[in-house]
Amino acid sequence: MVKTQKNVPYYITTPIYYVNAEPHIGHTYTTILADTLARFWRLYGKDVYFLTGTDEHGDKIMQAAKKEGVESKEYADRISGLFKSTFEELGFTYNRFIRTTDSDHEEVVTGILKKVYDAGDIYFGEYGGYYCVGCERFYTEKEMVDGKCPDHQKPLEYISEKNYFFKMSKYQDWLIKHIKDNPSFIEPERHRNKVLSFLQDPLSDLCISRPKDRLPWGIPLPFDEKYVTYVWFDALINYLTGIGYPDGAGFEKYWPEVHHLTAKDILIPHSIYWPTMLKAMGTEPFKTLKIHGYWQVDEAKMSKSLGNVVRPLDMKQKYGFEQFRYFLLREMSFGLDSSFSEELLTERINSDLANDLGNLVSRVLGMTERYQNEVVKKVDGHEGKLKDSVKSIAEELPGLMEGFRFRKAMLKIWELVTAANAFVESSAPWTLNKEGKTDELAGVLYALLESIRILAVFLAPFMPETSGKISSKLGIKFEQNLTFTDLVEWGLLPDGTKVQKGEALFPRVEYSAE
Ligand code: MSP
User: Which pTM value belongs to this model?
Assistant: First the structure.
């Protein structure tokens, strides 16, 4: 059952990415998921807002800039620009690309700090703790592994200084109750359980400032100019700035219908800092936090030093971006880790795309060319099980997308590809043609052409370019005012449409270990 109503807006976010690394498979994956959801719910008829961008303040960025011998802002401009141009080239349909150095964001952060300070939830104190610059956060003794950060495996630095603190601990009981009362607040369940187990120990307050003389690269605190804002307190607020908080129409419309998408590395800031910050500022909590697993590369952790970083533009050039996008959507079970390799990618391209989908489209269009002079004849009553397959996919897809089950959605859509290929064999249009059964032949081809048209609808959010190519081969365009439910209605391909087989959708690829 789909709970999602057409008239409820849909706001989807990705993490804003640190500008100390160039876009890789990880950033690309999360943004592909968000783009797929945005495209799906728009097609479904919802009002969607999709936000992505870059996180540019803090120690880590300042150190990276220093290493290159340039000013922090100049460095951030360059890498943020690279993220933006890459995302444009990949065709992501975000509504805004936000930067934490944008002036409206600085204003919003300043306003929120003032509000929380005036409410008495920020105080001055001294604290010492173990800090990971990679994660830009303190670790508790319990979280540390052999004195190291469990994620970066690097020794943690002990930092002790006078700073401002946010009274996060005050909201611990509220947060536990909210998570328990709202099972879909953090999903999948394994990650929700991790958060609840973290909350079994008393929460400490959150250090939200850094002294300017040590770290000048950040948003100044409105109540003490000797300090700048801690990077996570700054970054999380992007989700509000992006839609015009506090009094923009976007905030009014989209909050709190917000779905935050991140990987497991930043579970704690999103599930603990963020909801307590929202609570303190008197803003409703977000709707859901969805946590996906990590991509490994050739079974190993991806890293610059191992030289196994997978870059989306390289993949686009070598295999085609739609192929890469298909692989990522099809391969990872949401919430679990997965392994990427070019060998696996090649296998999927050849089997699922070139063989199954590509061949289906070229065979059916080829037969329409040969037997009917490229013209669609609308003859009903020969659809066999294809219509049932379409119906069951159309019914299930919205629920799968609501549950972020991308892999299951791809498998479900492929049921129609498989059914249509089997139908070609069982109905043997070549025999019908030989025997001069033109009416039956037209009926069989119509059922196949119509299945392909509906496949283009199903695929539109997942493989937008492929969907467009299929439609143009069929000589049709989706009307803008029609939604998913209208478009998957059987029988819309008009009689007399002229189709064109054209080039293969997916060339076969060779894998070489080089
Ligand atoms: N700047 C913070 C996020 C602030 S959000 C308010 C940050 N940036 S990051 O550049 O490190 O991006 C982390 C995110 O990138 C992950 O949560 C995930 O979305 C994506 N990925 C980075 N590497 C990944 C994999 N190897 N696999 C899957 N996704 C990962 O954290």
Answer: 0.96
